[in-house]
Amino acid sequence: MKTTISAKIACLMTSVVLLGGTVSANGSKPLPREGIWRGVFNVSESKVPFNFEFKGKDPKTAILTLINGARRDDFHVERLGADSIYVKMNTYDAALVAKLEDNGTLTGEYRSLVPGFRGNSLPFVAEYGKAYRFVEPGKDVAPKHDISGKWEIKTYTKDAVPASIALLKQTGNKLTGVIMTVVGDTRELEGTVQGDEFELSGFTGPSPFIVKGKINDDNSISGEQGFGIYKNVKFDAQRNEKAALPDPYKLTFLKEGYNKLEFTFPDLNGKQVSLSDEKYKGKVVIIETIGTWCPNCTDQTVFLAPWFKKNQSRGVEAIAIGFEQKDDLEYAKYTLGTLKNKYGITYDILFGGIADKKVVAEKLPALNKFVAFPTTIIIDRKGNVREIYTGYTGTVTGKYFEEYERKFNKVLDELIAEPVPESLTVAYNKGK
């Protein structure tokens, strides 16, 4: 994930708030009507639609669910004053506030809650009972092409952009898919094909994302990708079933002369923790560099947290080093603590500093460079770095996630099976 200031802002600006119904005796409006809603963000010159479902009549149990293809993301709803509702986007430090207008629509804005970035927002409008995303029922135009398959994408921008691949599935007018890069994926996107044009959007908590373009006569596609408020890039793409991204196991490695990783960072209680501590000696250790602002980091946490609970007794430890939107331990206690509680993390969480790839490279100087959040570093029982994986491939990528999971388990099984060095046996047995 890129960590420019604007990217951080957009990645964290999330939450949804909705109102509806008549006014009660005490002057408060009830919670939103239960059912499906359609919202539209105004992002520069683009309209980015999103769908959600509201359930519950009591703020203590009310849930708002963002819908993206087969993906569902749930968020707890809170009342805000007499006529508004506030919904924190779980681990993303953002919220959106809206009110019910006289014409029955919901209007609001999508705000960053990060200290120093407050005031940044995206406006949106939402309507109840509309389940479509881009095109109203009965107004579809027959598609001229089927763009299902794997597409190799070439982007045009002044800044270096990671190579990317789109995996698309079209059924009639309906289009779903995901865009993968070396740093991660967009999560599931949902959209439509109309004639020789297509559109896809996604909103799961981080910044809304949109892809729109044209299917050309030579069966190539061209268009534009919009990343919230902070970046728009033009692209061309060719269908290529053999397209491949750079090997994520070869992008980040140790500099010549290094075989170990050294660091000391505070945990969420301020205690200094080092990889050389007795707790980790003789253990296989998984190091994750993450940020609560990073959706791919969240998805990786959803994978690792239960895996660790299941496998810790085999002689494994894990450490998540969080790099956050503010270089402040108190703020990190809040953001990383929220992540810990949300996903039931039982491994150690440390605070590394501000979310900047240059900062990570400086604080982990054994690395040749730092490419992406998250990055997974796997260390053997002798304390040697054995594998480094850049980015994270989520479940929506299908076989790519399956390959990641299979290799992750294979590498860990092999390292766990290795004997504890005799010189570390006492420390290892003490830490079990």
Describe the structure concisely.
Keywords: Signal. With 432 residues, the chain is an alpha+beta fold. The protein has three domains: 5-128, Lipocalin, CATH 2.40.128; 149-239, Quinohemoprotein amine dehydrogenase alpha subunit, domain 2 (Lipocalin, Beta Barrel), CATH 2.40.128; 264-431, 3-Layer(aba) Sandwich (Glutaredoxin).
Description:
By secondary structure, this protein is an alpha+beta fold. The chain has three domains: 5-128, Lipocalin (Beta Barrel); 149-239, Lipocalin; 264-431, Glutaredoxin (3-Layer(aba) Sandwich). Helix content is 17%, strand content 38%. It is built from six helices and 25 strands. A nine-stranded antiparallel sheet has the order 4-3-2-1-9-8-7-6-5. A hairpin with a 5-residue loop joins strand 16 and strand 17. It is globular, with a radius of gyration of 23 Å. Mean pLDDT is 89; it is low at 1-23.
Summarize the SSE layout with pairings.
Layout: H1 5-12, E1 35-43, E2 46-55, E3 63-68, E4 71-76, E5 78-80, E6 84-88, E7 94-100, E8 106-112, E9 121-128, E10 149-156, E11 164-171, E12 174-181, E13 184-185, E14 189-194, E15 197-202, E16 209-215, E17 221-227, E18 231-239, E19 264-266, E20 272-274, E21 284-290, H2 295-311, E22 316-324, H3 329-343, E23 348-354, H4 357-363, E24 375-379, E25 385-390, H5 399-417, H6 425-431
Parallel strand pairs: 21-22, 22-23
Antiparallel strand pairs: 1-2, 1-9, 2-3, 3-4, 5-6, 6-7, 7-8, 8-9, 10-11, 10-18, 11-12, 12-13, 12-14, 14-15, 15-16, 16-17, 17-18, 19-20, 21-24, 24-25
